[in-house]
Amino acid sequence: xxxxxxxxxxxxxxxxxxxxxxxxxxxxxxxxxxxxxxxxxxxxxxxxxxxxxxxxxxxxxxxxxxxxxxxxxxxxxxxxxxxxxxxxxxxxxxxxxxxxxxxxxxxxxxxxxxxxxxxxxxxxxxxxxxxxxxxxxxxxxxxxxxxxxxxxxxxxxxxxxxxxxxxxxxxxxxxxxxxxxxxxxxxxxxxxxxxxxxxxxxxxxxxxxxxxxxxxxxxxxxxxxxxxxxxxxxxxxxxxxxxxxxxxxxxxxxxxxxxxxxxxxxxxxxxxxxxxxxxxxxxxxxxxxxxxxxxxxxxxxxxxxxxxxxxxxxxxxxxxxxxxxxxxxxxxxxxxxxxxxxxxxxxxxxxxxxxxxxxxxxxxxxxxxxxxxxxxxxxxxxxxxxxxxxxxxxxxxxxxxxxxxxxxxxxxxxxxxxxxxxxxxxxxxxxxxxxxxxxxxxxxxxxxxxxxxxxxxxxxxxxxxxxxxxxxxxxxxxxxxxxxxxxxxxxxxx
Length: 494
What we know:
Layout: H1 10-16, H2 35-48, E1 51-59, E2 62-68, E3 78-79, H3 84-97, H4 121-125, H5 128-133, H6 151-157, H7 172-186, H8 190-202, E4 208-209, E5 223-225, H9 227-238, E6 242-243, E7 246-247, H10 251-258, E8 281-282, E9 288-292, E10 296-301, E11 306-313, H11 317-328, H12 341-352, E12 377-378, E13 386-393, E14 400-406, E15 409-415, E16 421-425, E17 433-443, E18 446-453, E19 459-467, E20 470-477, E21 489-493
Antiparallel strand pairs: 1-2, 1-11, 3-5, 4-5, 6-7, 8-9, 9-10, 10-11, 12-13, 12-21, 13-14, 14-15, 16-17, 17-18, 18-19, 19-20, 20-21
Helix pairs in contact: 2-11, 2-12, 3-7
């Protein structure tokens, strides 16, 4: 977590910013932003959003407020989920500018070997433009991830019952096809293609992007960058594609990509019903945004010359935007404001102390029994790939270490007491990744650990209950694409 704020701290902030070529910093009031309004937004988000990860506000090209909820920090990349889509469409726009393709090219033109033997007229008429606008004509998303065929072939084999351009369907596979088209015409993955054209000029260091089995950037998800990188991307679009003295994206493309290209609803209170551009959502208040699952946002407000980057882990994404419009937006004024030292200091204190709540406990009747520790519990084969679990506690220490064999690999994780302890952990068949953990006894016979996967929006809560010589283990997550609670497992003493 990096402190920020006004006056004498500005030079310090520039010195400690982890991003390459950091955006300039400024006091909020100098850029026409009320510190009190920013404080009210941060306090509201802290209380009302399930798990906030980070927040950055850019006004007139200057970062005026930034904060990370410990154990999240400014240095770590973060999973963007569908916010990746806006980067993919940017690659399409750059490839168009390079003369590699036209958005009116038929999709089948790029994949003749993957086309069905007798494609119907709707598939024949599907254009790159339709991929960009989420108007491919599909009734349901093609199931790419489960396919053993090349993903482009699976996409083209899916039924297309509607005339392209007439039916909006949010379609992540359509974004994958954009990535595949760019790779086809440039000979590079979208990640590699964007590196010298976008990432390097903006100072976005070491972005990562997952690939399909055919080694094509996933396109619709899978990009990992830092919070300030999100803000820079939004600022580039706010500046109509110009960065310094270079036009990185044609201004005409920026205008098309962020305009309403497709109608997707009519609810005036929903930020998902304001129209869709080229992989950008139109928003209320004249704004547009890229966004990703569970609350990853790049919000651009041209009428206010502002950009807001947010990462979070929430089930209610509209709630985050409501707080932006209702609490933060009124604090953006047309002219510079008088310095407000009192509000600035309160904001600084709040931002410096942000944290995901640690796991808390309860007073114990007798304290955990010695037999709970250093006893290995063995679990029958299960989908969570948990094989053994042992809780350990060193003498004269209240910290508990979770030791276990997960999917054939020995793992150890120290849980902080009233604080976060960093480490690495893996769940099920997933890869080991950076985490932070805290834990506490929540009953005489129950230990609970909270684990933040610090490069994602996920927070896992693990419960270990000792009963009748057995260990009952349960795991749940704050958010997920399916069930967020896993079945209870019961381990026997080894």
